[in-house]
Amino acid sequence: MSLQVIVSVGSMNNIISFNKVSGILVCEAGCILENLISFLDNQGFIMPLDLGAKGSCQIGGNVSTNAGGLRLVRYGSLHGNVLGVEAVLANGDVLDMLGTLRKDNTGYDLKHLFIGSEGSLGIVTKVSILTPPKLSSVNIAFLACKDYSSCQKLLMEAKRKLGEILSAFEFLDNQAMNLVLHHLDGVRNPLPASMHSFYVLIETTGSDESYDREKLEAFLLSSMEGGLISDGVLAQDINQASSFWRIREGVPEALMKAGAVYKYDLSLPVEKMYNLVDDMRVRLGNLAKVVGFGHLGDGNLHLNISAPQYDDTILEQIEPYVYEWTFKHRGSISAEHGLGLMKANKIHYSKSPETVQIMASIKKLLDPNGILNPYKVLPH
Amino acid sequence: MSLQVIVSVGSMNNIISFNKVSGILVCEAGCILENLISFLDNQGFIMPLDLGAKGSCQIGGNVSTNAGGLRLVRYGSLHGNVLGVEAVLANGDVLDMLGTLRKDNTGYDLKHLFIGSEGSLGIVTKVSILTPPKLSSVNIAFLACKDYSSCQKLLMEAKRKLGEILSAFEFLDNQAMNLVLHHLDGVRNPLPASMHSFYVLIETTGSDESYDREKLEAFLLSSMEGGLISDGVLAQDINQASSFWRIREGVPEALMKAGAVYKYDLSLPVEKMYNLVDDMRVRLGNLAKVVGFGHLGDGNLHLNISAPQYDDTILEQIEPYVYEWTFKHRGSISAEHGLGLMKANKIHYSKSPETVQIMASIKKLLDPNGILNPYKVLPH
User: Fold this and answer.
1) What is the dihedral of CA B344, B345, B348, B352, to 10 degrees?
2) Is residue A352 included in any domain, yes or no?
3) B-chain residues within 8 Å CB-CB of A352?
4) Which of B102, B137, B302 would best serve as a mutation to test chain A binding (most A beta carbons within 10 A)?
5) How do residues B17-72 score in pLDDT, each as one tens digit?
6) CATH number for the domain including A56?
7) Which of residues A221, A251, A281 is at a domain's end?
C-alpha cells in the first residue's frame, strides 16, 4: 500500500504587490484567476490569460500547466508573460526565482522548467506576471464561412487588416453549432437564415471605440465582398457579445450533455488542421459525430468525438490513428491541456526520444525519489 | 596547454521554410538578422526583435543570448517568440525541438534552456520563430522631459493612451545627448531651443497612417498640457525618423569616441532606476561622467561611465557598488547582454545560491566535461 498526499495551495491566496508603472503583479499560487482579473480591472489592467474555468482555477495551476486560453493569440503564452516563480522542490528547498523584471539574462532561465511541467518538478507557490493595460474598446463579430479554406484566408486577412487590435480568432464547425443549439438552453443562432459549414468569432480590443468599430466594419465589408464570409453580425451591446462567446465556450458543455465524448486537444499547422476532422468522419461513418472547433488563430484544434455511449469499437477507430496523424504532421498531441496521466505514455508522438531522455534526467535531478505528481507527464 | 576550438555556424545560413498563414519562420542558426528582416519584409512580416548589431549578428547567437533590443516592449522576449530550436549537445547528439506550433504542452519545454544560456548547454543550429505581420504605419516622436518622474508618468500614460500601437519607449539623459551631439558627425538636436534633463523617443506602429498619427498628436498635446513634456517634435518623414533613432542608437558609439567607458546593462524597477545614476554621480564627482539611457519601457537601464582613460580608482568607486545596489533592489546585473566571462562570478548578485546550484547541476548533466563555452555564465 502506498501513501499518497494531495497538496492544496488554496489558502495561499494573497496578492503580494502590484506596480502600476510596469503592470507587474506578484501573488501567491492559490489566487483564483477570476479574483486576479477583478483586482486588476480596478487598477486598469487585465490578466494576459483568460479561460472558461477562471471562476475556480488557480494561478499556480495555470502556470504549472502552461494554460493557453482565449487571449493567447494577442498576448502570447505564459512563457512570455510570467516573469518569475517561487517553487518548492521535492527536497523541501524553496527556489526563489520570483523576479519582477522584463529582462534578466543572468544564467539559465530556470523558471521555464516549472511552467507547464504539471507540478512534476516542483510546486509553484508564488507567481510574478506582466499584465497589459486594460483597453476600453472591445468589439465582437460572429461570422459564417462556406469552407475551411475561407476560414484560413479570413485569418490571414484579419492579422493584416485588424493588425494590432485583433484579440481572438475562434472557430466552430456546423456539427459543433448544432450541438450547442440543441443542448444548451437559451442559445440561438445569430445567423439563422441558413446553416453554414463554419462559424468564426472575431474579437478586437483597442483603445478607441468608434475607430475600432469602423475598422472592424470595413474589414467585414471587404471580406463579404471578397467572398470570404457568407454572412455575419457585429454585436450591438455587451449582452449580444456575451451570447456570441456563449456559443463558442458552450461547445464542451453541449458535448457533455450529448452523451459520451472522446476529447483531443491538438496543435497542427493551420492549413492542415481540418483535414483531420474530415479524415476522422470518413473513418467513423455513422458510429459517432465528429466535431471540430478551437483557437484557429493559434493553430489549436479541439477534436471531439461524440457518441451515445463509450464503446471500444469507436475508440479503436480513433486511437492511435489521431496520434499518428498528428505525429505525421509534426503537431502536438496536447496543445494546451498537458499530458497528465492519460497521455504520459504517448509523449513520443510529439517529442523525440533524445528529448524525452533529457526530460527524464531533469526529473531525476530535481525529484530523485519521484514523489511529485507521480505517473504523470513522463512515460512510466 | 589546452586546445580550444571555435565553432562558427556562419555557413548554415539557409531559410528552411516560411508559412504565410501562421507567420512562422524556420531557418538555420547562421542567418544574419538583417537578412531575415529583409526576407520577411518581402513577405509582409517583420522579425519580433531588432537591434543595432543586426547587420552582423546571427539568429543563433540572438537566441543563445536571449537578445532583447528595440521591439521587446511591443513583442516581448524570445522566450515568447521562439517556437523551437535544434541544438547540438556536447556529446554530439542533435536535439530536435524544432516545433512550429504556438501551443505544445507535451512534457518539459526544454528549448527554454537553450535560449539565453550563451551556448554553454548546446549549440543552437536551427530556429523556429513566430513573426508578426508588418504594419504599414510607423510614427516617431522625440520629446523632452524636465525630470525623471515625468518620464515615468509619460510611460504610464503612453501605455494607456497609445495602448496597442506603442512599439518603443526609449530614453536618454542630457549627458548622453551631449556626448552624441559632440562626438557624432551630422547629428543635431531636434529640440535645440534649450537643453533639457531627459529626452524620450516614442515610436508607434499600427495599420492606419492617418489615425495613428492623429492619436499620437493628441497624446503629445495632452502630455504637453499636463506638463509631462516640455518640448517635442514628430518626425515628418523617414529621414527625420532615422535621425531621431540615430541619436538614441548612437549613444554607445559616442561613448567609445569619448574615451574609456565602463558599461553596465541593468534591469531595475522603473521607479528606482534613475536613482542609481544620481547616486553614482555623487560617488564619482569630477572623476568621470555618468550617463544613463536605455529601454525605459522594459525597465532596462544602460548605465555607462565615461572617463578620459581606464583608471582603477574609478573602477573601485563603481564596483561592487553598482552590483550591490542592483542586488538591493532585486534587479538584474545583466538585462539583455548575458554574463559571459566578465560577470560569471557575479551571478549571485541576481540569483539565489540554490538557483545557481541547480544551474550547475544542469550544466553537468548536459555537458559533463565542461567543453561548451568554458568559463562563461556560471561561477568557476
Assistant:
1) 70
2) no
3) 95-97
4) B102
5) 999 888 999 999 999 999 999 999 999 999 999 988 899 999 999 999 999 888 88
6) 3.30.465.10
7) A251
